[in-house]
Each structure stands twice: as structure tokens, then as C-alpha cells.
Design goal:
The structure is a single chain. By secondary structure, the chain is mainly beta. The protein is built from six helices and 41 strands. The protein is globular. The two termini are about 40 Å apart.
């Protein structure tokens, strides 16, 4: 694939780009002129002294849109998606920032929607929801520590999704319908309606139904990956003179793919399964429901006033997230076990009624106010303050068959009630000074104070009495952090070089679930903040008028590295025959390093215009002290890469044809801190082709068209697989 990228790059870079682009944009215009607010002020992407990738609405449409985090990160080097097959517990990682799937740990990446921090919470707090990717204006991904301006958890970087806003200047919108494999149907409608010269309304709806899937449960006659979603959004925007204001209200309800995994026990590993036991990876016989659901309400107000010498922006938002995750802890059923016993694969019956259900509710209240001053001579400045308030509640039900003679064996299971709160306040500032016409020095700093509280108890479902030692928790933590960034940037013609020293932290917390009391590994109640100091150098600029390159190299020193392990339970275990409970702990100090290169090129080829975006990253590092000294950090690939090639060409009067090919790859690394199993590599390719005329567009697409099959997770007795090839068609009208 690297050879393909190199060949495409050479062809584009060597082509004449003087004619008009087929998409109506001058092919001779410079690339990477996109305006973003990565540093809380409007700047061109090419002028930001940090490794950054951004996508405009047009770019996203050309790729066929971005439906979820995985499809987004496949376009950005140095980014990895930790896929649990369940969007409620999956998460994104940048530059090896730690992942803590299915725990209450904070994300290692700052997750923002319109500048609002939306991360946090036991379920769904380490990724975006489907509604966040609806009707998007821009998406920006900043790689590297961003703690000075973004604060908590922006260790690997930050992602900000900016929604399209009401426009009082013109009436516009779009309608789209689509059908796809597995009886998937989806429809979107967005209408932007000016009400007066200064007031506009923008409303949108999205409905999706997918009745079938690729992973099937014959016992319950259920598709694990069937889905449906409903989304409603309304915005009212006002713009008059120096005042801008926008009010947004949104509701979404999603049924998502559930947690699905294949039983895979090798022969000779377990006495209960001496010949091994392997279930079909696409047909899993479970007797408990396997569903994931999420309902989100989101309210946001943004007000901006330009005083002439400075602009003040106030952002206030409320996000409510209700989630539900049901799964089968033994990944089995009576029918499946009876067949396995008859075949001589199981020597003794096990409990097939180990069920699990987690119900969560998170309320996030976020407020930010900042003032950006106009440049005074050589001096620029920014000051701001932020308050983040999270209330998170979770109910964890673990059921089993009540058999035996003791009180514990006669119990039908347990119910753990968890209440977790996170209060955080911060003040930040940025000051820049032009030492010369080409050389700038910028200092940024942020002081944050965090306070976390946890109350938890586990009760017997049958009696209501406390169940198990170590599950009655009442604890709190307080921490102070000062994160900073010092950047020296030099601009010469079309080139920007920079050197940056910065820090960030990932908030510590609690392990909410102590797991099965039979587990061989005890789970600690809490863990400390992770602190990272990073040094980065970078270069970005035009190799030619239409070839833009962005390169960066970095080294991170990490204290109190946060990693994930599990309690040693697994299906088939003679000690604890249940699904493993993951937990988080501090592994010691670590050093990470990496190099990233991105390239954007455009050229006129055969009467049309081609645009290529390509990137590759190399990452490395080891844990340098503590009980895991010498180990590689988990969920950090050695190599990642991507490319996206879009070509548009007139084929008849008022008729334009196009195709888009997107590819991504991953290689090297390990899944868990135990250094096994490997982080399985892949090469995934998506294709899209179509025509458009007078606002109409018809397109066919095929994702994973080579039908690449790889494991997204492997445990002692379970494997999870990626989704196979999908395909569909879309019809869109824009006005």
C-alpha cells in the first residue's frame, strides 16, 4: 500500500494543475487553507504549530461522510481505534495514549463537540455518539499533548467536531436516502431557513433501520449487529453586527451492535475442555440478550461578541446520556452446551446462565468563557475559564443459576449500585510574541482543579443484603494540575517549522466494578493521574503549489502510566468461569516516540481533478520502571497509515462523474499489558463511485471491498472479529 501511495503522489505532484477543477474549485489554489479553531481562535490549518489534520464538509461528503469514530480515525496517521465490537465501550487512541475499554477510566484523548468537552462516564464516555457526526461543518484532529488549552485527558491529542450552523444569508439544505446490505435503510433531511436578515433556523432529522446483520444468534434468533437510530436536531442562529448567538437542541436514540465474541479455547489448555471448544465466529449460541442502547439529549448555547479590540465567546452545554449494555457472560446456552457434551468436547456441565446488564446515566454540564484579543503590534493573547461537572450513575447486574447449599451459591446474582461525580474548574491563558517578522514564541498555561467522588455498594439480588467483600466503596480524590506549552515557530514563505515543549494529564479515578469474587487477581479501588511531558518538532509547507506536506516527530515521557488489565476470569476457567472484568492501574513511567508524515496533493488529470490525502506514522516506546518495566504499551500500533484519493471529471453537459478510494492499514503492537496477544494488523479499502447534476447526486459504495478479516480482540477464551464487506447506494439532493 505504501508503494501505491508513493505512485499516486508522484503522479499528482508531476501533473499540470492550472485548469479549473471539476468540482468548481480552482485547481491552482493552494491546499490546506481550511480555517479551524484548534487554538480557540480562527486560524488556517497550515499556520498551526502542531501536528493537525482537518476535514471540511466538502471533503467529508467526497469520502461518503463519516458515520462513526472508526471511519474518522482511519484517515489520520498515528490514531488507533480500540474496537470492542460495541460502540458503547470502544474508544480512540492517539500517539499511544492509553485505552481502558469497558472501565470507568477517562479517555486519553480530548473529545469535543463545538468546543464542548463531552467525555466522561462509565459507558459511552470515551467515544462520540452517532449524532455527533450528523450535519458536520468541520472535524479537526490535533495530535500530541494539548493540555495547555484543552486540559484534562488531552494526552494523545484532541478531536473537535463542529456542527454546521444556521446561515441567515441563504436558504439551503439537503435530503438523502440510502439502502445497504442487511436490509439497511436510512434517510436524512436538513433544512436551513432564513427567518430575517439576522435570524435563521436549521433543523435536521436522521432515521436508520438495519434489521439484519453478519453476526447471528440462532438460540434467540437475534442479529448481534442489527441497528436502528432516530435523531432530531434544531438550531436557531442570530447574527447582527458584533453579536452572534446560536441555540441548539438535539435528541437521539440508538440501538447499537452488542458485545459479541466467539468462544475459542485451544485443546489441552483447560480440563473442562480437553479437546478445545470453538464456536462459529458468525453464529454464536447465547441464551442471554446481547444489546447496546444509547439515548442522548444535548443542549448548547454559544454567544460571541466582538468589542473591536477583543472577542468574547461564551459556551454553555448540557449533555444527558442514557446507556444500556446487555451481554452473556459465559457466551453459551443450554443447547450449545448439550451439543458440545454429546460431541465429547465438555467433560462437565458449567453454568450457562451467567448474564450481565449495565445501565448507565451520565449528565455533563459544561461552561467555557474566553476572550481572544486582537493582535497589538507583535503581541497576541487569549484568556479563559472553564467548568466541567459530571454526575454519573451505573447499575451493574450479574446473574447466575442459584444452585448449591451455601448462601453464595443459592444467590441468583448481584446488583451493584455506583454513583460517581467529577467536578473540575480551570483557568487558562495564551500569549504570543513575534520576535521577528518570521519568528514567533507562544506560551500557554492552564491550571485545573479536579474533585472526584465515588459511592458504590453491591447487593444480593435475592436478599438485598451486601454481597462480597470490598464492594462497599465510599471514596474521593482531589488533584491540582498545571499544564503548559512553549512553542517556537518560524515561518518562511510557504513553510512553517516549529519546536514545542508541552505537558498534559489524564485524570485518575476509581475501578467501579470489583468483578467476580472468585477472580484470582484483586482489583484496586483507585489509581492516580497520569502525567505526560512531550517534546515535538514539526515542518509543514508546500513542496509545490499543489503539494502540501505536514511532518512531525515527538517524544513523550509519561509518569504513572494508566493501563488496563483483567481479573483473570475467563470462560472455561476452573477457578472463575465467567467473562473477565477489566480494571485500570498505574504501571510506572514510560517513554514513547514517533514520526508522522502527511501529504495533500491535487492535480488535473485526463480532464478532471484528483485530490490525494495520504499519511503514515511510526510509533515506539517502552515502560521504563515499575512492575511492567520493559513492556510495550498496549493498543499502540508500530505502524499506521491511510490514503484517500478523490477524482472528479465532467462526463457530459452539466453531468460530473466521481470516484473515491480510501485505504488504511495497521501493523505491529500488542493488545494487552501482558504483551499478548498481538494487535492484529489489517489493510482496509473502501470505494465510492457516482454521478451528480444540478444538485442531485447518485452514488454506489462498498466498504472493506477486499473483505479483509481480522481479529479486533483476542482473550484467553474469546475472539472478536471485524465487520465483513458492506455495500449500498445513496441518492442525495442539495439546494
Amino acid at each position: 500500500m505504501l508503494a501505491l501511495i508513493a505512485g499516486l503522489t508522484a503522479g499528482l505532484a508531476g501533473s499540470d494543475a492550472s485548469a479549473a477543477a471539476a468540482d468548481g474549485v480552482d485547481a491552482g489554489s493552494e491546499v490546506s487553507e481550511l480555517i479551524v479553531t484548534a487554538r480557540k481562535r480562527e486560524e488556517r490549518l497550515r499556520d498551526i504549530p502542531t501536528a493537525a489534520t482537518a476535514f471540511s464538509a466538502d471533503q467529508l461528503r467526497n469520502m461518503g461522510g463519516v458515520a462513526d469514530v472508526q471511519s474518522l480515525v482511519s484517515n489520520v496517521p498515528g490514531v488507533n481505534f480500540a474496537n470492542t465490537s460495541n460502540p458503547v465501550t470502544s474508544e480512540v487512541s492517539i500517539r499511544g495514549s492509553g485505552t481502558s475499554r469497558a472501565t470507568a477510566a477517562e479517555s486519553g484523548v480530548g473529545l469535543y463537540r463545538n468546543g464542548v468537552y463531552i467525555g466522561g462516564g462509565y459507558q459511552g464516555g470515551r467515544t462520540f455518539s452517532k449524532s455527533d457526526f450528523f450535519d458536520v461543518q468541520t472535524i479537526s484532529v490535533l495530535r500530541g499533548v494539548q493540555g495547555a488549552l484543552y486540559g484534562r485527558n488531552a494526552v494523545g491529542g484532541s478531536i473537535n467536531i463542529s456542527s454546521a450552523r444556521p446561515d441567515p444569508a441563504r436558504r439551503s439544505g439537503y435530503a438523502q436516502v440510502g439502502v445497504a446490505k442487511n436490509e439497511r435503510r436510512e434517510g436524512e433531511l436538513v433544512v436551513n431557513q432564513p427567518l430575517t436578515d439576522s435570524l435563521a433556523l436549521r433543523v435536521g432529522v436522521d432515521f436508520m433501520r438495519q434489521d439484519k446483520g453478519d453476526f447471528y444468534n440462532p438460540v434467540r434468533k437475534q442479529y448481534f449487529d442489527a441497528q436502528k437510530s432516530d435523531l432530531f436536531r434544531a438550531q436557531l442562529g442570530y447574527e447582527q453586527g458584533p453579536l452572534k448567538a446560536n441555540l441548539l437542541a438535539e435528541h437521539s436514540a440508538d440501538m447499537l451492535p452488542g458485545l459479541m465474541y466467539q468462544i475459542y479455547i485451544r485443546p489441552g489448555v483447560n480440563a473442562t475442555y480437553p479437546k478445545g471448544l470453538i464456536d462459529d465466529k458468525y453464529r454464536m449460541s447465547w441464551n442471554f440478550p446481547n444489546t447496546a442502547k444509547m439515548r442522548t439529549n444535548y443542549f448548547e448555547f454559544v454567544g460571541e461578541y466582538d468589542f473591536g479590540s477583543a472577542t468574547v465567546t461564551l459556551t454553555s452545554a448540557l449533555r444527558q446520556r442514557h446507556s444500556q449494555n446487555a451481554f452473556d457472560r459465559d457466551a453459551s446456552s443450554q443447547e450449545f452446551q448439550d451439543a458440545a457434551i454429546a460431541a465429547g468436547l465438555i467433560t462437565r456441565p458449567t453454568d450457562v446462565n451467567l448474564g450481565g446488564l449495565t445501565v448507565g446515566y451520565a449528565r455533563i454540564f459544561f461552561n467555557d468563557i474566553h476572550i481572544v484579543g486582537d493582535k497589538i503590534g507583535r503581541f497576541s493573547w487569549l484568556v479563559g475559564a472553564e467548568v466541567y461537572d459530571l454526575d454519573d450513575e451505573a447499575d451493574i447486574f450479574l446473574t447466575k443459576t442459584p444452585t448449591g447449599t451455601t448462601a453464595a451459591s443459592l444467590s441468583p446474582g448481584t446488583h451493584q449500585e455506583v454513583s460517581n461525580s467529577f467536578r473540575s474548574a480551570a483557568a487558562y491563558a495564551s500569549a504570543g510574541y513575534d520576535l521577528t517578522d518570521n519568528l514567533n514564541f507562544t506560551a500557554e498555561g492552564r491550571y485545573t482543579r479536579d474533585h472526584k467522588d465515588l459511592v458504590s455498594q453491591r447487593l444480593d439480588i435475592g436478599t438485598g443484603a451486601p454481597s462480597g467483600a470490598g464492594f462497599s466503596l465510599d471514596d474521593s480524590t482531589k488533584s491540582d494540575n498545571f499544564s503548559y506549552s512553549l512553542t517556537l515557530a518560524y515561518k518562511y514563505d510557504d513553510w512553517l517549522t516549529y519546536a514545542k515543549l508541552g505537558t498534559a494529564y489524564r485524570a485518575g479515578g476509581f475501578n467501579l466494578s470489583q468483578g467476580d469474587p472468585r477472580a484470582p487477581i484483586a482489583i484496586p479501588v483507585s489509581y492516580r493521574d497520569e502525567d505526560t511531558t512531550s517534546f515535538e518538532v514539526g515542518l509543514k509547507g508546500n513542496l509545490t503549489r499543489n503539494v502540501f506536506i505536514n511532518a512531525a516527530a515527538y517524544r513523550n515521557n509519561v509518569d504513572n502510566l494508566v493501563v488496563q488489565a483483567d481479573n483473570g476470569c475467563f470462560v472455561g476457567s476452573t477457578v472463575c468461569p465467567a467473562q473477565a472484568t477489566p480494571f485500570v492501574y498505574n504501571a510506572g513511567t514510560a517513554r514513547q516516540y514517533g514520526v508522522e508524515v502527511e501529504l495533500t496533493a491535487r492535480a488535473e488529470i485526463a480532464g478532471g481533478v484528483a485530490l490525494l490525502n495520504a499519511g503514515v506514522s511510526r510509533q515506539g516506546g517502552k515502560i521504563r520502571s515499575g512492575p511492567d518495566k520493559g513492556k510495550t504499551m498496549p493498543q499502540r500500533p508500530d505502524w499506521t497509515g491511510s490514503f484517500n484519493l478523490n477524482y472528479r471529471r465532467p462526463i457530459a453537459e452539466n453531468l460530473t462523474g466521481f470516484f473515491n478510494i480510501k485505504g488504511s492499514f495497521r501493523d505491529g503492537g500488542v493488545q494487552e499489558i501482558e504483551q499478548t496477544p498481538p494487535l492484529y494488523g489489517y489493510q482496509i479499502y473502501d470505494a465510492r463511485v457516482g454521478v451528480e447534476r444540478d444538485g442531485w447526486q447518485a452514488a454506489l459504495y462498498m466498504n472493506n471491498f477486499a473483505n479483509e478479516n481480522y481479529m479486533v480482540f483476542e482473550g484467553p477464551s474469546a475472539r472478536r472479529w471485524n465487520l465483513p464487506q458492506t455495500y449500498g447506494a445513496e441518492l442525495t439532493y442539495r439546494w
